[in-house]
Specification:
The complex is a heterotrimer of chains A (712), B (254) and C (189). Chain A has 712 residues and is of the alpha/beta class. Chain A has 24 helices and 29 strands. A seven-stranded mixed sheet of chain A has the order 5-4-16-15-14-6-7, covered by helices on one side. Chain A has a five-stranded mixed sheet with strand order 22-23-25-24-29. Chain A has a four-stranded parallel sheet with strand order 11-10-9-12. Chain A starts with a helix and ends with a strand. Chain B is 17% helix and 15% strand. The radius of gyration of chain B is 18 Å and the shape is globular. In chain B, 55% of the residues are buried. Chain C has 189 residues and is mainly α. The chains are: A alpha/beta (712), B alpha+beta (254), C mainly alpha (189). Chains in contact: A-B, A-C, B-C. At the A-B interface, strand 3, helix 8, helix 9 and strand 22 of A face helix 1, strand 2, strand 3, helix 4 and helix 5 of B.
Chain lengths: 712, 254, 189
């Protein structure tokens, strides 16, 4: 039958009308709308059970326990572990970034060997063979630079060095080194820690205790406890330093003092305490008294450091009147202070009778070692790494033949970093165990990547500044994502193959042994009772030694409240007498924020948004000077400046900020990376380049805090 | 579309002690990992970054050595009288749930940014770029908050998923999901703050600590005189900080 | 001049008839052909028989449980299935072959079975089984308890979702009738 036009139209019209009564147009429109929401280039959220597991952060120096959330067994985000004494739920930006760091583009995914200026992947067997050959040839000329000396892995490395006959183990600089060296010079026994929880009047000399210094999360929790919301505070804090940094911003008072003069300030306060009759039974009490009375009178100190005599008197009065005063010496950027300055600050604690008292300075025992032959952390920390490398660079000290670099980035993280990197180049064979392609790894001959925190066993042992001993277990939550190995296991295996067996087959076994030894050491597991409560007088809770490993696996910390009795503590008056701090016309004050990571981590990808545009903008570093300094040098807001020091220079832009002392340039630390990945590279400059390393009078240890700078 | 002041039986609120915030940024970092905000390579252009929680630096404006600093963490105020809700042409945002959290539904948002213009607190952020996760890092995406493409507005939601989780935990433990104890529901930022500067809870429940804290004489809210009725309170004992909470004339009392 | 014989009645009738043909044709295409084209049929990776397992004495909660956190684990993990099926049977019946397939492809390598979820919801939807505990499972899910093999999975070729995926209006309707809140964030994330 033929279809004429009208019939055809009728058919089509019928079809159209009929279609309206079918799902076709409505469903297609709806499904098309849903199709537009299926963005294939945006990842989907995971499905799967959400569970939590515990471990501890190895990238953050504050040693917090971590509570990691896992979706379908894969880690997705990390918080602080509320049951851990160094965390109580809090975590630093670095600890919070540990999960994302697993997939950082900067990760080294397989062992690498440098060949013809480029890195080529090799197998672990090949790497081990080469390393063994080089070590055998080097004999005892093996050195190690480590960013982690306190724990069981540090012991293993130290024991390895001891077995090959070397004592050249160095720690990266921080607060712990000058403290260990200074306390030793004072005749002190043990490692110092500060009981902020039970102190009611705290004078902080430089140390950024509420940002990155010491057990900074624990310090902040202690601060929180003494400053209950909406109520009166029960402890006073005063911060002395060249910049009113994060610690200074929440302190009750800021005493602007240049880095170089923090020791002078301390002795100026000591003058008042002595005048009021403070005395100790130290052997050199008379010498100390004479030294302070002759050289640190209020007029002399005031003129030198610019702090008014009434301010000095006021501080001394507050400290003397407090029930539990505490003085915490340190460096405003967490490194570069000298033992002499540390001793000067500690002298106040001695005069106030705060050694081994609740709310005072705790001298902690070292944890028992499970690798025979290992040096104690204090011995390692007291060594001067910048001084050593400076000597190697200048040809005064013999360079080692083999260098191990573990959890450290000395080519970036040392003062006069350019010169330090050049010194490192003199070492013929360098092995880096870094997890990331950092500046040091980039210049090494072998990179044997360590598995990251969430992929390995490890421990966190009594971080610097803690008022109590502690050990926290780090356990793997995922199998290594790439072809990486736990360095400690690699070292143990290598040592065995070299017939230098260190005593344990694996790190896990060594940690179990450590737990067994600690179980007999009169501590307890911190759960319902916290160690600072025991310091305050609460009864030590019951402890089941047999259950320690299980508690450690559950993320809890073994702690011990107990101090080393001091038998020969003195003021090291001879050292103090030699101190001759020199303040330059214009000096640097490093401001180290946790959001820029550490030298070994680079800028964590997650933390970049937390960096304000007053620190970094469009790839340029921004430095802070106050209006008075700006006027003197003809600068204004946004001026481009070139800072020079130690034979190097750094370009930057100026930001006028009044929280900086006159005559001081506050510089943000952690920028200027030339390695890692796009998140770290090309952002600002590394101000350690221009920080001159010099020898402290009286101790000869290298210092660089508050070094001179010139504006070109 | 609700244009008027909304009041519910529960009122989730934050109380932030400015005198305790050290500006470390742990809250900012925790918020990002919790809510699947992709890392940004150049995060120094603050007009393009996504910072649901953002920490501002406050200054007292005095010269050295009287200079003082403070830090103010700013999330979303979850206003009782939100400026953003009435202006949304597609009702992608609404304040219609008990608890008072202002919702933001990404598939519905057309990206007109009218809400951003309306919000006086700069709490809302526009996704200028598609999120780019470095290879492998997309495995760290949490199931808690859906991922967003470019072109939609996003903001803090007081980690609403944690409230859902707390309610579910209460349900299977046989407890009342609508009467959660203090601390059962805590956003990520509050949980990780090392200084404990933030407290979170039901502003209407006397058993929650924010009830008393929000009524403290030291508590104030930002731009209160606009009438937005924020659910975020700040506390400070410092007058100069308090004065920065609103546009006060020199002779006005804070 | 020729008179054009247009049989008005017949002509109109013809148009009307074809119109009706069009309507009916469209209805058939729309209601029968279109769904066939739009939905593809997929089968589950393992032909799991709920009936057999129920006969073994397993109740629903043995495999579909609530975690302590309140999260509902609807899909049992490979590990939990492997508790009873750790090794191959080596048998020849269809069931035994299916068990062996599970063991070799999923249990031994430790891979999760990519089950096709009939009620698959988009990423931005939050559904709380704990809140809906009081309802029978079959209120929303097909009654698989008495089925010997899983029903076919119809995947929408355009949107990618399952035919059985409940849309927002269904949830809203029940919420409204039960007096539960229909606020956005109750179900979205």
């Amino acid at each position: 039958m033929g279809l004429d036009r009208r019939a055809f139209i009728g058919l089509v019209a019928g079809g159209a009308v009929g279609t309206l009564f079918t799902p076709i147009p409505w469903k297609l429109a709806d499904d098309a709308a849903i199709w537009t929401q299926n963005w294939p280039w945006i990842p989907r959220v995971p499905r799967g059970e959400v569970t939590f597991a515990t471990t501890a952060s190895k990238l953050c120096p504050s040693g917090t326990g971590l509570k990691v959330a896992l979706a379908g067994g894969k880690p997705v985000t990390a918080y602080g572990n509320p049951e851990h004494p160094l965390s109580q739920g809090g975590v630093s930006p670095i600890g919070a970034s540990e999960v994302y760091m697993l997939y950082s583009p900067a990760r080294v995914r397989t062992p690498m060997r440098k060949s013809g200026g480029k890195f080529e992947p090799i197998t672990w067997e090949q790497a081990q063979t080469e390393l063994m050959a080089k070590c055998k040839a080097a004999g005892n000329k093996v050195a190690c630079i480590s960013g982690d000396v306190g724990g069981t892995v540090g012991e293993a490395l130290s024991a390895f060095l001891a077995k090959v006959g070397s004592a050249a183990m160095y720690a990266m600089p921080g607060e712990a080194g000058p403290a260990a060296a200074g306390f030793k010079l004072m005749g002190g026994q043990g490692r110092v820690g500060f009981d902020i929880d039970n102190a009611d009047c705290v004078l902080v000399l430089g140390a950024d205790i509420f940002e990155g210094s010491g057990v900074s999360v624990r310090n902040r929790k202690a601060f929180c406890a003494s400053h209950p919301l909406g109520k009166d505070q029960t402890a006073k804090f005063a911060y002395a330093g060249p910049v009113r940094n994060h610690t200074g911003s929440v302190s009750d008072a800021w005493i602007p003092v240049a880095s170089a003069h923090l020791g002078t300030l301390a002795l100026g306060i000591a003058w008042h305490l002595l005048k009021a009759g403070a005395t100790t039974d130290a052997a050199d009490m008379a010498d100390f008294k004479k030294l302070v009375e002759s050289n640190y009178s209020p007029d002399k100190v005031s003129k030198l450091i610019g702090v008014g005599p009434e301010v000095l008197a006021g501080i001394a009065k507050n400290l003397a009147a407090a029930k539990a005063p505490l003085v915490i010496p340190g460096s405003e950027m967490g490194q570069g202070m000298g033992p002499g300055a540390f001793i000067a600050g500690m002298s106040l604690n001695l005069l106030l009778g705060r050694m081994n008292k609740p709310g005072g300075v705790m001298a902690l025992p070292e944890l028992p070692a499970v690798f025979p032959g290992a040096e104690t952390p204090s011995e390692i920390l007291a060594r001067d790494l910048p001084g050593f490398l400076k000597g190697v660079g200048e040809g005064k000290t013999a360079a080692p033949e083999v260098l191990f670099v573990y959890a450290a980035n000395p080519a970036y993280g040392l003062p006069q970093s350019g010169a330090m990197a050049a010194a490192l180049e003199k070492i013929p064979f360098k092995v880096s165990f870094a997890s990331f392609m950092d500046e040091t790894a980039a210049m090494c001959d072998l990179i044997l990547p360590n598995s990251l925190t969430l992929e390995r066993f490890d421990d966190v042992a009594t971080p610097y500044g803690s008022a109590f001993c502690s050990m926290t277990l780090v356990k793997p939550l995922v199998a290594p994502i790439f072809d990486t190995k736990t360095t400690a296991d690699f070292i143990l295996e290598t040592a065995k193959k070299m017939n230098l067996a260190l005593g344990h087959d694996s790190l896990e076994k060594a940690l179990k042994e450590k737990a067994a030894v600690l179980a007999k050491s009169d501590g307890f597991v911190a759960k319902e009772t916290m160690p600072w409560e025991v310091l305050a007088g609460k009864d030590k809770p019951a402890f089941d030694p047999a259950g320690l490993w299980k508690s450690l696996e559950a993320g809890l910390a073994w702690v011990k409240v107990g101090q080393v009795a001091q038998t020969g503590l003195s003021f090291a008056a001879k050292v103090l007498a030699a101190l001759k701090p020199v303040q330059a016309e214009l000096s640097l004050a490093g401001v180290a924020q946790q959001r820029t990571g550490t030298a070994a981590t680079g800028l964590p990808a997650q933390c970049l948004t937390a960096i304000p545009d007053t620190d970094l903008k469009d790839g340029a570093s921004i430095v802070r000077i106050n209006a008075a300094t700006a006027k003197k040098y003809g600068l204004s807001q946004g001026s481009s400046v070139t800072l020079t020091g130690a034979g190097a220079s750094c370009p930057a832009k100026a930001h006028i900020a009044e929280n900086v002392m006159t005559g001081v340039v506050a510089v943000p630390m952690g920028f200027g990376h030339t390695a890692f990945d796009a998140f770290s590279k090309g952002k600002g400059d590394n101000f350690l380049k221009i920080m001159a390393a010099s020898a402290e009078d009286g101790t000869d240890m290298t210092v660089w805090a508050g070094s001179e700078v010139k504006i070109a | 579309m609700s244009a008027a002041h909304q009041e519910f039986a529960t009122k989730w609120g934050l109380v932030i002690d400015i005198d305790k915030c050290t500006g470390c940024g742990a809250c900012m970092v925790a918020c990002q990992t919790e809510n699947n905000i992709a890392p940004e390579q150049d995060a120094s252009n603050k007009l393009r970054t996504l910072t649901w929680m953002n920490v501002y630096e406050l200054k007292n404006g005095k010269e050295f050595p009287q200079a003082e600093m403070a830090f103010l963490p700013r999330a979303c105020m979850q206003c009782g009288n939100p400026s953003c809700v009435p202006v949304c042409p597609v009702v992608a945002t609404d304040k219609n749930e008990d608890g008072g959290i202002v919702s933001q539904i990404y598939p519905r948002c057309i990206g007109c940014r009218y809400c951003m213009a309306a919000c006086p607190y700069h709490s809302r952020y526009f996704g200028w770029f598609d999120p780019v996760w470095p290879e492998g890092m997309e495995k760290t995406i949490t199931p808690f908050t859906s991922t967003r493409p470019r072109g939609v507005v996003e903001k803090c939601h007081f980690c609403h998923h944690r409230w859902n989780q707390a309610k579910d935990a209460a349900r299977i433990a046989g407890k009342d999901p609508n009467n959660l104890p203090d601390g059962a529901y805590t956003p990520a930022c509050v949980e990780v703050c090392p200084t404990g500067a933030m407290a979170f809870g039901d502003l209407k429940n006397p058993k929650h600590k924010v009830y008393e804290l929000s009524r403290s004489k030291y508590a104030f809210r930002l731009l209160e005189r606009l009438g937005t009725d924020p659910q975020v309170y700040y506390m400070t004992k410092r007058d100069w900080v308090r004065r920065q909470g609103d546009n006060y004339l020199p002779n006005e009392k804070a | 001049m020729e008179e054009r014989q247009s049989n008005k009645a017949g002509g109109v009738g013809g148009v009307v008839l074809l119109f009706l043909v069009g309507v009916v044709g469209a209805l058939v295409v729309g209601w029968w052909v279109f769904p066939q084209l739009l939905f593809s049929q997929k089968t589950q990776p393992i032909l799991f028989s709920h009936k057999v397992h129920a006969e073994q004495g397993l109740d629903c909660e043995s495999c579909h449980t609530f975690a302590k956190t309140g999260q509902f684990i609807g899909l049992p993990s490979t590990a939990s299935c492997a508790e009873c099926h750790p090794d191959e049977t080596g048998g020849t019946t269809d069931a035994e072959k299916e068990i062996d397939k599970f063991v070799t492809q999923y249990a031994k390598p430790g891979i999760e079975v990519p089950w096709l979820v009939y009620q698959y919801q988009p990423d931005n939807v939050f559904f709380s089984h704990a809140a809906h505990k009081g309802f029978e499972c079959t209120t929303c899910h097909p009654d698989v308890a008495n089925m010997d093999s899983p029903p076919p999975y119809h995947e929408n070729r355009l949107s990618g979702y399952s035919k059985q995926t409940m849309k927002m209006w269904e949830c809203e309707r029940c919420h409204a009738s039960m007096g539960a809140s229909n606020a956005c964030y109750v179900c979205h994330k």
